[in-house]
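User: Assemble these into one structure.

Assistant: Restating your components, then the assembled model:
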Amino acid sequence: MIHTASIGQRLTLLLAGVAALLSLLSWGMVRSLAAQAAAHTQDNVLAASATTIAETLRSEQGAVRLELPYAAFAMLGAISEDRVYYRVSSGDTVLTGYDDLPAPAPGIMGQVVFDTGRYRGAPIRLASVMRVVLAGADRVVVTVTVAQTRDGVDAVISDISRLAGILSVAFFFVAVALSAIAARMSLRPLNQIAASVSRRGPGDLRPLSRAAPADLAPLLTALNRLMERLRLSLRRSEDFIAEAAHRVRTPLATVRVQAEIALRTVSDETEKERLRRIIRAVDESARSAGQLLDHATVAYRVEELARDRLNLAELAAQSAAGMEPTASMREIHLALDLTPAQVRGDAVLLDSAIRNVLDNAIKYSAEDTTVTLKVETVGSNAHLRVLDEGPGLGDGPKELLMERFQRGGNIAGVIGSGLGLTIASEVLRAHGGHIELHNNENGSGACVTLVLPLA
Amino acid sequence: MRYLLVEDNSELAEAILKRLAMDGHAIDHAATLAEAEDCLAAASYDLILLDVMLPDGDGREFLSRSRAHLETPVIVLTARAQVSDRVGALDQGADDYITKPFDFSELEARCRAVLRRRGGSARNQIALGAALFDPLAGTLQHDGTTLDLRNREIRLLEIFARHPGQILSKSQVMDHLFSYDAEVTENAIEVYVGRLRRRIAGMGVRIDTVRGLGYRMETDDK
């Protein structure tokens, strides 16, 4: 599988980028608003001051006279330590103040005009107002200009923008943390689906039915379709095997019956032996076909394992009754020692497991012996034991006997395909149990124990 | 015993018919469910052997349909060893099932088990000397007591009872007694014959050894 960056990481990164942009933007906005507000305040004071000076202008004996009001400058001093300049002029004649203070562009009479400029090496803000003063018969236009350096305003702006900067950085980090949480939370349904798929058993192909956000519906649908296809193909191969078994076994049955009839009618001993060999071969192939089919059936049924409450003792008694005629054919006595034990599971599969183990025991036992079927509870488990008086399981590793087509090393002359224990073992595993194989401690024979958790 | 075989494969049906006839059973054959209904209406049977897959329907459906008025035990013949198949058949009223291909002695053992469960039927009893032998129930009645016989004893007694006064070779006896996968020595037959002799001692019937030829069952009064 190729791993690309996780969706969670991508989402977090994207949201963090957006948060950074928003932080920067809000910082810029706060900064420019602060600058505007500070400039506006300065302008208002400058305007007020200029107007106050202009209002003190009067004419005295045909000349314009001016008394600089203290209040006009006190106002400016109140807001900062900035230097203040002024000039009162009439045309090109400077009545009072700084001669070289730059003059703003002329405006409309009585209205305050603002401007920015540099004076004595520092940026300044200027406000000027024009007023007409009647000096005798003359109308004299007087311009009052008040200017102030901008240090105070700049200080306010930088204070506010530093604060805004700190807030923006804090906002950014909080936003990143929240993005990570949000990414994780929005991915949770996906993770839950992944978990519920991986929790499933190997054969569980039921459609997923958990509730999921609408965005995940296409994924869920695709997943369910895939499982449905898989299930259909499993089912098809199961049907195929069943059909194949039917086609193979009916003619085999004919061959077997014909061979039996021939065996009854011929008298030559070599021919009889030939016929017996035919019958043995038929039995062997029929048995293999049967177990292959059983194996496929088990694989299929495990997928939709029933979880019924069952009494293992009752089930064992039924399975044993079904095997009784087979046992009696070899004069084998089936002894039952059953104590009730409640388990949960699929009766059909468990029956098949018990029969396979019993079949093995009957097959490998000598005639005129006893096979014992025991059900008991041990701790939190139910134990079903099948004990025989046969040759035992040999000395090889016993686990190998549960693998497909593996047969013990000491069973020459007995027909078998090596699938019996595999089938039983798969059934037990699907039920959360397992099979234990031992040689009997007292005397000869094997002991196969099916261990199932109690209900 | 009177059997009804419901099986659509004519080759297999012919062979089963012949094989059962060799054991002295009467047997009717129906190739379809419709024919089976006709047979059941016309005669009564001890046992029905029913195939599952038939041209005009599923044997199991026939079972669930007719189980209500049908008292004859049914053994289902199936080619699918499949567990679900079997349980389905038993649920729908079959008494047992057997998978194809089958050993006739296993079929007999299953028939015997089924008939024993159903209480047997008196018309199959065979008189042996002073005793009454019921091969289906596997019992010998003598002098007011009933003796339960084991599987091989029943089969051994059955072959002698069906051929009274005839010499049966060891090979004939062997084929009747053992399944073909077992390696059997002639010595084993002597063991079983010896056992059966002890069982029937004093019942007015005996098994003689005919040197070099085999065995023969004789009643004492002859």
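Residues 120 and 137 of chain B are 6 Å apart (CA to CA).
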